[in-house]
């Protein structure tokens, strides 16, 4: 079964930006964000970092392990030199399921959200990491099906939350309809229920409405979601329709889900005037903490307070992700958690 994100973890995976990515002219801005994420993770668990440049990979391992040792932190870094097109580990990283024999890493195909960008290096990255021993003795199972980690949410009890716009787009798996996809994900992820959102939209989003930018499980009976309160905003109609769908969803016992609306950040634009997909739903749950993207806008403090209420037993660590959304993603998008038992440095 696919565990919930709040299940015990061994590590978080990061694919480090390098000059061959779209970050080439922004490395001085984005690398500090990756470093902040890395140092925060090491407070609670290990890190697996891939980096295309051998020397940089070794530098990162040495620098971060020295930091962890000096600070007395429990986490350690495994770094692997490996080619990559980009940094979105959530979508090209492995999806780990629990089996009777222990964790198995599913290596779904990745085609850059329906062929929008180059993807061949990213699609091969998990095999590079496995061959280097980054995943220990856990098997890596190839799956001939395009699926990104950001497109699914698990409650850890057999229910998946997803969006029809993403999973049903013909540029991913054109021969698979909704019934076939449900059957496949049931077999591979142990899901016996799928909740499909048919609405939801963020300007500047390249993923065809990934669920991790829109709505997230914070407990098996509780979903937080993006809500737009401004009727004049271009997002208002789609997100209001999504909210109504969430209100119609039911748990296994027939009761409605508890729902919490997340703040709506002030609009953020790139240098060309294009609106960027800033969202507080793109947080990462790790052992004893939640890493929350913030953007230097008025709503950041409210988001921190609300997420702290959602996860009262975890420390909320805000990370300035304003540079990340310049490439149309955020904190959850650049990370992939690896459950307990996968990584043992």
Automatic annotation (TrEMBL):
Entry annotated with the keyword NAD: no
PANTHER family: AGMATINE DEIMINASE-RELATED
Gene3D superfamilies the record matches: L-arginine/glycine Amidinotransferase, Chain A
SUPFAM superfamilies: Pentein
Presence of keyword Calcium: no
UniProt protein name: Agmatine deiminase family protein
Keyword entries, A-Z: Hydrolase
InterPro entries hit by this protein: Peptidyl-Arg-deiminase_porph
Domain of life: Bacteria
